Amino acid sequence: MPTEARNVTVTGAGGQIGYALLFRIASGQLLGADVPIKLRLLEIPQGLNAAEGAALELHDGAFPLLQSVEVTDDATRAFDGVNVGLLVGSRPRGPGMERADLLEANGRIFGPQGRAINAGAADDVRVLVVGNPANTNALITAAHAPDVPAERFTAMTRLDHNRAVAQLAAHLAVPVTSIAGLTIWGNHSASQYPDVFHATVDGRPVIDLVGESWLAETFIPRVANRGSEIIRVRGASSVGSAASATLDHVFDWVNGTGSGWTSAAVASDGSYGVPAGLVSSFPVRSVGGAWRIVEGLEMGAFSRARVDASVAELVEEREAVRALGLIPD
Ligand code: NAD
Ligand code: LMR
């Protein structure tokens, strides 16, 4: 029997990441090579021409899996029946800015989108927030969609995870496929904690191969500040790697992670002392189409202090958006 088409909504589809994503989604890299796609591209009026142009090019790609492309500036229309929502649309930071500087400007985008998801999304909807500050924007979106289980709202730390894997593999001069068991904890910000204490390289504990000073002075700051490094070097925030990580996150969520784990920001259930409800990055496995936090990992003082610092920042962001009226008291 042919697989039913899935409705995929991309917000900010006329922007940089949108352009890098759309063609890969149409070619089957988001959900699988046998899953037909109906695309909805949501933009604000100023972005509609760019999205329309991308839609014309998608048409010209003659993608066998792509059944339709609709461009709209109406969130209700865009999220009606949506199975997968990629919430990319929001302002990127420029040189000298931190992601938290975007809190108010971008936070206002996500309440209305949460309401539109609540009103019309398919029962199995999965939402990935990419737009920064991604964790807190996911929290805002979920807060406006009370009828959708909170576990369906996630934020992207897969880019940080991929960066950490790549940095570690380069340092140890092994292929990226040799690395397993790495975790990004906390916020998608400079406070994030890339944790190698449970990581292995070809089955050997990474911690036997790297020193704590390399972790503290080189690896952790390099990964945590990679977004800024890209902005400094390119003059604009990451695009291709962000689109790639978006596909990785959703593909694994839908199709499973197999024996290993990855990192994603999901609604906390209180695991590892992270206050319930915060959208924080954890080690996660995808089982039966749902993210499950990997439980029972030991955490020493080195890790605990860093996880706590990043979680404290998430608590501050939650208080800030509450004070702005972007989430209910
Ligand atoms: P961009 O400026 O090129 O594109 C953003 C697009 O969003 C624009 O076309 C704009 O018109 C549109 N937009 C703005 N408000 C909208 C709304 N209410 N509804 C629909 N569309 C709207 O930016 P970009 O480079 O594509 O980056 C997008 C976001 O992704 C930024 O916030 C950036 O910081 C973030 N980002 C996150 C990660 C991550 O790992 N989580 C990585 C890279 C970038
Ligand atoms: C990144 O990590 O590259 C993005 O979140 C962009 C940014 O602002 O750092």
UniProtKB/TrEMBL annotation:
Entry function: Catalyzes the reversible oxidation of malate to oxaloacetate.
Organism: Cryobacterium psychrophilum
Gene Ontology molecular function: L-malate dehydrogenase (NAD+) activity
Name of this chain's protein: Malate dehydrogenase
PROSITE patterns (UniProt xref): MDH
Residues in Lactate/malate dehydrogenase C-terminal domain copies: 157-321
Residues reported to bind substrate: 93, 99, 132, 163
InterPro entries: L-lactate/malate_DH, Lactate/malate_DH_C, Lactate/malate_DH_N, Lactate_DH/Glyco_Ohase_4_C, Malate_DH_AS, Malate_DH_type2, NAD(P)-bd_dom_sf
Family note: Belongs to the LDH/MDH superfamily. MDH type 2 family.
The EC number(s) this enzyme carries: 1.1.1.37
Keyword set includes NAD: yes
